[in-house]
Amino acid sequence: MKLLRREKTVSLDDRLAALARAADLADGRLDAEAVAAARSVISRAGVRASLSVDHTAVALAGATGSGKSSLFNLLSGTSLATVGVTRPTTSTAQAALWEGTGAGPLLDWLEIPRRHELLDASGQAAQGPWHGNGEEPRPGIGRSAGASGSGTNERADGTAGVPFASGGPASVAAVRPSDASGQPSGVSGQPSGVSGQVPGMDGEAAGLVLLDLPDHDSIEPSHRLEVDRLVELVDLLVWVLDPQKYADAAVHDRYLRPLARHRGVMVVVLNQIDRLSPAAAERCLKDLRRLLDEDGLTGVPVVGVSTRTGAGVPELRSLLTSRVADRRSWSARLAADAGMAADALLQASGVAPGETPPDVASRPDGLARPLREALSQAAGVPVVVEAVAKSHRHRSIAATGWPPTRWIRRLRPDPLRRLRLDAGSRSAGKSGASGEPSEPGGVVGRTSIPVATVVQRSRMDTAIREAAGAAASGLPAPWAAAVRQAARSHGDELEDGLDRAVATTSLGVSRRPLWWRVAGLAQWLVLATMLAGGIWLLALVALDYLRLPQLYMPTVGELPWPTTLLIGGVLLGLLIALLSRVAAWLGGRRRARRAAKALRSSVDKVGRELVLDPVAEELTRYQHFTEAVAVAGDGARR
Question: Does residue 175 sit in helix, strand or coil?
């Protein structure tokens, strides 16, 4: 039976941390606006989490004439919002608070200048939002503070009341809702922040901060900017539509569809259903539901209401009360913001949400060999390998050749010394068996290896491009460009790095083979034998020249010993030299193979450090980015 791993839901803090990682990883690779937007979400989330989580900011947003201000007055049981039909009448956002103690910093952050705390009949802060009997409330009595920090009680009819002092520049009002008869409850002098209970009110609505926003389609640009600003900040969005403009592209294209991630913190209200017959209202609601589903807002509550008859208001009250009592709208809003920012980063990457990113973990491993071959050619490895073989033969002949002619071989330059790769000087202190300088920071001079030809450079560039292209295969365009850039990020260091790698590689030619000493000693013995035979013959010639008696002459068969020693020494010396040359050729090939292996290893290390490692880092960066975006966007870790 196949076992499926269960998805583990991550916390909001983990999602925001993942979004921060994704933004850092995407910095310099993706569109700067998407990265800045993600960081803005993180900053905004930090501020919102530090403010009151016992208050839920609920915004009523809608178009001109949709009746959102009337709905605001109905829900608050006041006439705080000016009602208009043909032109925008709400110029700045205002707030009605239920138990507003501690909500000041939140409203300061939202920059809401007009604040009204609802009071019950006893002058205490109301704990429930639902006042009146569904009819349009009559003006209440409140107090307002102007920019100077002081003001007077002001009735709706404009008559002045008792002066009072205020502690801030924002407009603050304590408002009594209309009673059941629709009459104002009287003047309130009770300061905000006290608690009480309105008879028959639902205490679960305590902490509600209801906002009335300007019209999103206002002819005033400042009104639209204010709506856009607050739509990004509030905890819960209530979109108030009307039967005439519920399908308007202005609200669907600009707000609803882009906010598909926020369907968990959104409510849609179809107002003014009293203007339609019940059948027509039902058709409008179904059509609105269809449009919302097309916008990706499946599951968003749709409530039909009438501020004139009160139809649907109890359902809306219950919905808002449950959201406020849950105390989770603020975190759900921030989670949706994180998901939306993650989607924006994915879109900037060229990856569609839900698309599985390619696996890039093992890609650099398969790119080393073709790159190594091209870098080896450019580094002059074949030249060095051939020089190693020639140098071994050169030194072997100098050590095992016929002693009278060795000096001629020594007049010829050593092939490795011509390339400034003298193994003796390097083995004395510049490098170790690993091919690295024995002293940290040791200075290694440049070699005399011929500079890479145009063809070799072209092959090296082609190999780097092909390696980068293979590594970036299947990646989104921005990340593929970053991988290609990473492959060439150390291009200026590559030539010096290759030369240094060759110069510091132990070529294995410093150790003299034992047979050189044996062959060299044999050559000296043969030379001594030849000299003995020659001197003997000279002595015989001198005795004959001086007419002295001849000495006894031993022979080997018919050949006198002096002649045997001389000729045998010459022939044996030539034979040893010939055999030594054969051994030197074989040894040169063997050492050349070892040197080639060591050089390719060093070149491979340079290629990894300067080409493949930056590519691997970029691929790892992309992999971590996709993992972080997945956590930030989905809120689940597999």
Answer: strand
Sort strands 94-97 and 636-637 into parallel, antiparallel or unpaired: unpaired
Query: What letters, b where the CB count within 10 A reaches 16 and e where it falls short, cover 316-329?
Result: bbebbbebbbeebb
Q: What is the DSSP string of 215-276?
A: PTT-SSHHHHHHHHHHHTT-SEEEEEE-TTTTT-HHHIIIIITTTGGGGGGEEEEE--GGGS
Q: Are strands 160-165 and 555-556 parallel, antiparallel or unpaired?
A: unpaired
* Cβ count within 10 A of residue 445: 10
| DSSP letters spanning 93-113 | -EEEESS-TT-HHHHHHHT--
Q: Can you read off the two tokens belonging to residue 414?
A: 């050593």
- Which residues touch 465 (CB under 8 Å, ≥6 apart)? 484, 487
Beta-carbon neighbour count of residue 617 at 10 Å?
14
**Whole-number Å distance between alpha carbons of 216 and 88:** 9
Q: pLDDT digit string (tens) for 571-626?
A: 888 888 888 889 888 988 888 888 888 888 888 888 888 888 898 899 889 989 98
Q: Which of 65, 427, 110, 324 is nearest to 218 (CA)?
A: 65
| Residue 131 CA: distances (Å) to CA of 419, 495, 520 | 97, 81, 117
Phi, psi of 173 (to 5 degrees): -135, 140
Q: Which tokens belong to 376?
A: 């080896």
Residues 101 and 124 sit within 8 Å (Cβ to Cβ):
no
**Buried b / exposed e along 182-203 (16+ C-beta atoms within 10 A):** eebbebbebebeeebebeebbe
Please give the DSSP secondary-structure letter assigned to residue 359: P
> Is residue 184 within 8 Å of residue 159, measured between CB atoms?
no
pLDDT tens-digit readout, 416-443: 777 777 644 444 344 443 344 444 444 4
All residues at 6 or more sequence positions from 285 whose CB lies less than 8 Å from its CB, including other chains: 270, 302, 304
> Crossing angle, helix 12-26 and helix 613-634, to 10 degrees?
150
Secondary structure (3-state) at 307: coil
User: Which pairing describes strands 302-304 and 555-556: parallel, antiparallel, or unpaired?
Assistant: unpaired
Virtual CA dihedral for 485, 489, 494, 500, nearest 10 degrees?
-150
Residue 467 is classified by DSSP as H
The pair of three-digit structure tokens given for residue 44, joined into one six-digit string: 């905004």
Q: In what helix (H) or strand (E) does residue 286 lie, and over which residues does it extend? A: helix 278-294
**Does the predicted TM-score (pTM) go above 0.90?**
no
Computed on alpha carbons and rounded to an integer, the radius of gyration of the chain in Å comes to 46
Smallest CA-to-CA distance from 71 within 371, 425, 307, 341 is with: 307
